[in-house]
Amino acid sequence: MAGVLLWVVSPKGNATALLSLIPRSVNKPKKRSFKRVSAISGAVANPVRSSEQRVYDVVLKQAALVKEQRGRKALDLEKRSEKTDGFTDWDLLNEAYDRCGEVCAEYAKTFYLGTLLMTPERRRAVWAIYVWCRRTDELVDGPNASHITPRALDRWEKRLDDLFEGRPYDMLDAALSDTVSKYPVDIQPFKDMIEGMRLDLKKSRYMNFDELYLYCYYVAGTVGLMSVPVMGIAPESKASVESVYNSALALGIANQLTNILRDVGEDARRGRVYLPQDELARFGLSDDDIFRGQVTDRWRNFMKDQIKRARMFFDEAEKGVPELNPASRWPVWASLLLYRQILDAIEENDYNNFNKRAYVGKVKKFASLPVAYGRALMGTSKFI
Amino acid sequence: MVCLSRFFVVSCTVKPSAPPLSRRFVHTKRKLNSRWQSMATDPDSSFSAPSVDSDSTADKTGAGFCIIEGPETVQDFATMELQEIEDNIRSRRNKIFLQMEEVRRLRIQQRIKCAELGIYKEEQESDLPNFPSFIPFLPPLTSSNLKVYYVTCYSLIAGIIIFGGLLAPTLELKLGLGGTSYADFIGSVHLPMQLSQVDPIVASFSGGAVGVISALMVVEINNVKQQEHKRCKYCLGTGYLACARCLTTGSIVLTEPVSTVNGGDRPLSPPISERCSNCSGSGKVMCPTCLCTGMAMASEHDPRIDPFD
């Protein structure tokens, strides 16, 4: 049974991306407004720190933590046993992981099939992370979202803190707790995801790409950062850890942008617009045009521009897959190639994302698998 | 009052986080008592809609009620006395009952206003509610649909009876492949010859029974699939997830680290087990996705499953 990886998309455009890539270069993709400064040239004093800067700080922190943990590996083992001391019923734990797998299979079939391409241990870890992300997403976006208050999110965050300290509340938390004890996963991306949920409760419009970038980071970039420790960096990789995380981030952002571009019509029907208002204005468009749902030449030009940017993020992400652990490259490549094809599908639909769903057919999906396998074999190569 | 003094004692001996709890409960209790009394005497009290709404939301958010459970939240109502708890349950159920009635009346008004403003509501209630068919591949059933179902059903039965009873013998059709007779057919598929001598009544009865039984099975399986579709996938319809603290046992064994350096010849005291505070001894905790209803899409009508069932 062949499988492909696909990002899970919830109705309001939140993506739960669970793969990461590692690029070599740390060049920031070109943006429209030039208030940004490339992070390589160091921190230039900027009165208003852009979202990219803030997000990149998180990336640096993650990378630093990984290096720190590599140095403290011996101590880590002791810590691990302490953490899992309270939870030694393996049957229950296995059952928890199986339940995570079932939930994943139910809500994200293609993604589930893709996880089957990973090693069994990684698969379980990915399922546990997926289920936590999905539960968090469903709090604000699910059928019972109307009963969720900011206080509820605070409590959810408290549960997250507890589970990272080895005190999970219920069995699905326990699966994640076990995962974070086995892999060096940091808590910050999880907290940022909850922060993104808080944001989603309040916001339904994004003024510029900066705001949208932050949102994409919160809901999808974080998932990339969460999964790098699980996928693992190849021991022979010479790329910096920051660049690995940066690519993971880029893949998350690329996936979220793709989701947004695919679901414009669906989101509009819910009264939400996930496109930067200033860019819409620049192309002579407004919310009304989106709600009306008609494809005009202005719309086509706007979409071309957006798709170009999304592709830039994919290119950024591609630079780093070769740096991953060899066992993890195939599923990650498969997912990347597949999601790129959604952008092609939008173009084939003549940019009509109001009524038509940009869909990648099964044949194309299957065809991506051997291509992904081929690229996975290439390792650290420069000719991509 | 004895209970009040107990609150204060409790607040003195526990951690700083507790006093707000006890304060809140004194506050809630007072509010609840007054409202319960007012509700008992004046059943129409809930119709001062705005004040009740703000009152109830203030009650909920002011009292700090939160729909997501946490390790310390299950103890929310633990400091109440049994009689208080029963009174609280009764008053809340009464409130729910009255609010459902309010919803009904509000819906009537909504319908009227929509009709006045000419807003067309897509979901028009029909005489017979729309529900999915248990037979796979068939469209959902409605009152008009039902007539079509009846007509199709009767005509099919009539057709088969006419075919079997009149047409087939008239045209002297022979059963079997390539125009062979029944005996020849049995012989050609190498089945025992006694099958060709089966009594026609028995044969038709068996065939009919097999058909009916398999049809019923198909319908039942489809029914199960549909019900499964409606249930919450995280807790598999139970409404609860296993408590990770006590590992579904309901009790935590308190382990005290014993030093083996000094006092090594003191006998070990038996471990004390106390009720797990996470799950209050039931071994399971609320599923935050379905909110203990077990349904994928929870509504106010869905009963909340009791953990001790």
Key traits:
heterodimer; A: 384 residues; mainly alpha; globular; B: 309 residues; two-stranded antiparallel sheet; 7 helices; 4 strands; flat
Give a structural overview.
The complex is a heterodimer of chains A (384) and B (309). Chain A is mainly alpha-helical and 384 residues long. Helix content of chain A is 64%, strand content 1%. Chain A is built from 16 helices and 2 strands. Chain A has helices at 51-71, 73-84, 90-107, 109-115, 120-141, 150-164, 171-182, 188-202, 209-231, 241-262, 264-269, 277-282, 287-292, 297-318, 326-348, 362-378; strands spanning 8-9, 15-16. With 309 residues, chain B is mainly α. Chain B contains 7 helices and 4 strands. Chain B has helices at residues 2-13, 18-41, 49-62, 82-117, 143-170, 182-188, 200-230, and strands spanning 240-242, 251-254, 272-275, 284-286. Chain B is flat, with a radius of gyration of 33 Å. Chain A: It catalyses: 2 (2E,6E,10E)-geranylgeranyl diphosphate = 15-cis-phytoene + 2 diphosphate. Chain A: One of its GO terms (molecular function) is 15-cis-phytoene synthase activity. Chain A: It is an enzyme of class 2 (transferase). Chain A: Keywords: Carotenoid biosynthesis, Isoprene biosynthesis, Membrane, Transferase, Transmembrane, Transmembrane helix.
User: What proportion strand of chain A?
Assistant: under 5%
Rg value of chain B: 33 Å
Query: What separation lies between the terminal Cα atoms of chain B?
Result: 35 Å
* Radius of gyration based on Cα positions of chain A: 20 Å
The secondary structure category of chain A is mainly alpha
Strand coverage percent of chain B: under 5%
Q: Given this structure, which CATH class of chain A is correct?
A: Mainly Alpha
Number of helices of chain B: 7
Cα-to-Cα separation, first versus last residue of chain A: 28 Å
Shape of chain A: globular
CATH homologous superfamily caption of chain A = Farnesyl Diphosphate Synthase
Using the alpha-carbon principal axes, give the shape of chain B: flat
Sequence of secondary-structure elements of chain A:
EEHHHHHHHHHHHHHHHH
Work out the number of β strands of chain B.
Answer: 4
Q: State the CATH topology of chain A.
A: Farnesyl Diphosphate Synthase
Work out the helicity level of chain A: 55-70%
Helix tally of chain A equals 16
The strands making up the biggest β-sheet of chain B line up spatially as 1-4
Instruction: Give the total of domains of chain A.
Output: 1
Biased composition (Low complexity) (chain B): 42-55
Region (Disordered) (chain B): 37-57
Protein name (chain B): Orange protein isoform 2
Keywords (chain B): Membrane, Transmembrane, Transmembrane helix
